[in-house]
Task: structure prediction
Amino acid sequence: MALGVLDTIIPYVTALMEVKSSMGVVVDAPTAGSRGGLPGSIIGVADRLGLGEKQIARAILAAGMIGAGVAKYSTFSAEVGGCQQCGFFGQRCTGRL
Result:
């Protein structure tokens, strides 16, 4: 069963998670528990679309800017704001709500 772009994203996310689990150096995006998911997804989509390193860097920068908004106006902590609050803010940043 073909999964489309997920067939490209999953190996990148898995590779980043393996580096993280073996005490390798990765950027926490968005949090330590999910590190690898965001950059792996961005790299996988860029690979599928044939985009270069500059576009990957811009996408990661854009994600970081959204994260800065979450940090300023909301919270990353599920214990403080609940998972739904963080998701809601992220969706508002992307214009989905």
Q: What stands out?
A: The longest helix spans residues 53-73. The mean pLDDT is 76.
